[in-house]
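User: Working on a comparison across species. This one is ABC transporter ATP-binding protein from Cytobacillus citreus. Can you predict its structure so I can line it up against the others?
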Amino acid sequence: MKVKLNNLSMKFQDVVAVKELNLSIDKGKLVSILGPSGCGKSTTLYMIAGIYKPTDGELFFNEKLMNGLEPEHREIGMVFQNYALYPHMTVLQNIMFPLKMQKVPKRGALLRAKEMADLVQIGHLLDRKPSQLSGGQQQRTAIARALVRKPKLLLFDEPLSNLDARLRIEMREEIRRIQKELAITTIFVTHDQEEAMSISDEVLLMNEGIVQQYSPPQEMYDQPKNLFVASFLGSPPINQLKGKIFGKRIHLMETEQSIPIETEIANEDCTIAIRPEAFYIAEGDDFSLTAKVEFIEQVGRDIMAIVTIGQATLRAFLAREDQIQQDETIKLGIRKTGFHVFSSANEQNLPIRPAWDGHKN
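Assistant: Here's the predicted structure for ABC transporter ATP-binding protein from Cytobacillus citreus:
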């Protein structure tokens, strides 16, 4: 099923929760709606589901206008943060329940429920009650119940929030496997950037009810349209330095150093944003910034160095073999990928190119 939103808006009294949202989701794609708490992502999902009626705009499934259609007529399956399983029913009965409401003959409903249970790998748990299940098993039961009606659109609202970190990873991989196997159009709401980036074909990033960027996850990370996108994605977050563009250089306001650039822009205040992994120990004639190492932390196979450049404090992921020491002064090169300049006036990404080669790109 293809989903299309034309200027969709939702207002609660004087509060605009979603403002003029335009979105097109192709059949069989998994799209995550990502953003901080209160950004409008769940409201958007509820409008698509029919739980909320939009105050303005149009919603289409394929070419059919859906604005006035009730949820039960939209051919959707939905999984909530709270799995909402019936405690007195077995796993099998919970999965079969939607078919019972549709008055599907029992034999056909039983076969369909067992098929879905096998798909989500809980076929051996059909006689158990929800209280006898782990969090992951309850989540699989809720997914099977959502799928049993053969929906054309699958909706997830923060489905993994109640699981521990390891199980979250396992379940998001399972959701992606199931989605791929069924080739079902899926919308996945989450505040967790790692979830969104790992399983999605496209990510819709929202803030204060407004779309910030809609693109494949890697493109969003590598080519953020504005400072909000750049700062929301990444852990640890992107480094930010205040600067001013003078000719072919950006003067770093908190330091006595500058960065060479290629641009036609002049005399503009800006924010330089550099991913922690974009730094490296410079060699020879590489362009570099002089930094003092304040603290070193082991992060898996790499180290994270907390450094100061003038009055600015930054984080840099460096290779363990670099063997830097605390209180040491080092030269930091910057890879071109992971380097961005944003206008201070509107926070949009500026068309500025680094004017150095660097031996590490």
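For your comparison, note: The helical segments are 41-49, 91-101, 106-119, 135-147, 165-182, 193-199, 217-222, 227-232.

User: Helpful, thanks.
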